[in-house]
Amino acid sequence: MSTPNPLPPPGAELTHYVSPAPFDPMAEPAGATTGLENASQLRLMWIKFKRHRVALISGVFLLLFYASLLITEFLAPYRLDTRNLDFIYAPPQRVRLFHDGSFVGPFVYGQTMHLDMTELRRIYTDDPTNVQRLRFFCRGESYMFWNLVPADLHLFCPAEGGRVNLLGTDRLGRDVFSRILHGARISLTIGLLGTLVSFTLGIVIGGIAGYRGGWFDHGMQRMIEVIQSIPSIPLWMTLAAIIPLSWSPILVYLGITVILGMLDWTGQARAVRSKLFALREEDYVLAAELMGAKSSRIISRHLIPGVMSHLIASASLSVPGMILGETALTFLGLGLRPPVTSWGILLTETRGVNIVALYPWLLWPMAPVILVILAFNFLGDGLRDAADPYR
Amino acid sequence: MLRYLFGRLLIMIPTLFVISVLVFAIIELPPGDYFESYVQELRMLGEPTDLQEIETLKARYHFDAPAPVRYWHWVTGMLHGDFGYSFEYRMPVNEVVGDRLWLTVMMSVVTIMFTWLLAFPIGLYSATHQYSWGDYGLTFLGLIGIAVPHFMLAIILMYFANVWFGISIGHIMDVEYLDQPMGWDKLRSILSHIWIPVLIIGTAGTAGMARRLRANLLDELGKQYVVTARAKGLSPSRVVLKYPLRMALNFFIADIGSILPAIISGAEVTAIILSLETTGPMLIRALQSQDMYLAGSFLMFLAALTVVGVLVSDIALSLLDPRIRLKGRRG
């Protein structure tokens, strides 16, 4: 903006001034160097979002976590249902680097078990003579990648003949760490799919109500009030109780997803509706109407893109509710059932105070639940701030 | 005021009507009914089935009638205070439920009080000390409160209450008081037990409310009248307490509508885990055995509780805020 001031000093006579630059009517106005004038709304949002450090970190964390779902079998040292009957309720093994003061690389000590006959429990002690070096990018337990391709490559595996249970084992001697990774597949996708259902319902119903108004809008408003006034968990419970016991686990999974989504659309629909009420008065909507566009085209081409950024923000805030909903339903015995393994299923096994007292490592599945929910909250907050043009 | 009250009450009727249709539809959805599964169970155990009794019950509760007729009987019964018959307990729902409804109401009310008492100072502090370490710390704690599932909190608290205080929690009162009439001892027993479920249920609600209060208060604090008050030399604490806080108080009451369903939801899950003598455990049992009148009445009751809670908050709000009370007259 450092153009020289064309005005003469005060008091002097004004000369006739003509810019010496050649005139080009198509040229961009001066100062248009930021490139933001033509940036799309999503790009503007991204620029603002980048400034929100915590939200950015959360977003990257979630992205990595979701990406890891693609290669769960490779990341987990064991299969979902691998049992090691010699090590039931074994505590977590610490990964160490130094043995007897010398560097060995990542390894774990083997554990020896003896039964405490007075307390009737298994007691595991580290055996410092038994150094088991971890192997990386190794051939370990065979598995079916995506249930399709047989493979046996793992990110890390135990030493030959040894074992590695970073977060201990459960009552059947299964590796908690591997099970958490496998459970993530179900838990994380349930939140995403459920949000997709509620998102679609919210956009369609809210879109029609907001654009059309009238009786449809009135009816929808009352309906939303009713749905929001029924406490969600009892309603979920009732709907989940309807799912027949004879359904296959995958159908139950889809059923739960739809139930979670079906009851969550109200917030989205309200947001879409109130935004569309404002947007439909804009001139470009009138122009489209005059050109004879159908209302479905106006809504989907002209109105929804205007509210998309808000919708994405609010959708990311509704994912954690679904993940928590799944764990709660499953915990109550109304949600998923084994052999499908979700974080809810893993937490169900911690039912009972004695687990907390004796085998606290079975509470580990809580850590990813809390982390993911925190991350979604931060991400949603960041997106919401970024989507708000007035900040 | 009367006019507002009247109009507000009138709106409740269609809302409750639609809720009842919805609830009825939901409890009718599962294929089969209680008797089918009951007879099947008896046959499997090889016990003689008293078909006569079942037929009587079926006829009495119009099981063969079409759905609209059954709905009509159900709703008119409820209006007369007859909530139907629990087939599993072989007792009218009223008697099965008994005190549980009131304990649920009581727990919800205590939880809301708790939420207020805690959320108020936290929200106030966070808003007046925006972006301070205290603000970040409290926000983070609140988010943790939202992120930890209720049932895990319940289990962990159960453990620590046992280890630290040596009390066994679970149940809403000492068991010997369960069937006794209300009295001082019983009340004391309830009070000594109720704080753990209240703590568990209230955590998430408190966090959410404190966050919303903070946002609301921040909006108010940025307004010009606050700047004016400052410029005129009011002390900072007086500025906040005198004006913006009053505005935020409105929101506090209005927010009941959004936290009450969440509190009741949380209360159900927590009650099931702590085996409290409220509606939660019984609801889940009724759902599992398709004891439809019991389940339906519970669901209806919980929804009605929310609707009434919102009504109370609306009335309190209109008492506090003349703008709401008088809105109808001008329009």
From TrEMBL, chain A:
CC terms in the record's Gene Ontology section: plasma membrane
InterPro entries found in the cross-reference section: MetI-like, MetI-like_sf, OppC_N
TM helices/strands, residue ranges: 54-76, 186-211, 250-267, 311-336, 356-379
CDD domains: TM_PBP2
Keywords: Membrane, Transmembrane, Transmembrane helix, Transport
Similarity section: Belongs to the binding-protein-dependent transport system permease family.
Protein name (database record): ABC transporter permease subunit
Source organism of this protein record: Paracoccus aestuariivivens
TrEMBL record, chain B:
Cell compartments where the protein resides: Cell membrane
GO terms under biological process: transmembrane transport
CDD domains: TM_PBP2 (cd06261)
One family name in Pfam for this protein: BPD_transp_1
Transmembrane parts of this sequence: 9-27, 101-124, 136-161, 190-210, 248-274, 294-320
Superkingdom of origin organism: Bacteria
Membrane topology: Multi-pass membrane protein
ABC transmembrane type-1 domain ranges (all copies): 101-311
Entry GO CC: plasma membrane
Record flagged with keyword Cell membrane: yes
Main location: membrane
Record Gene3D superfamilies: MetI-like
Keyword Secreted in record: no
SUPFAM superfamilies referenced in this protein's UniProt entry, alphabetically: MetI-like
InterPro entries attached to this UniProt entry: BPD_transp_1_N, MetI-like, MetI-like_sf
Keywords: Cell membrane, Membrane, Transmembrane, Transmembrane helix, Transport
Family: Belongs to the binding-protein-dependent transport system permease family.
UniProt protein name: ABC transporter permease subunit
Organism: Paracoccus aestuariivivens
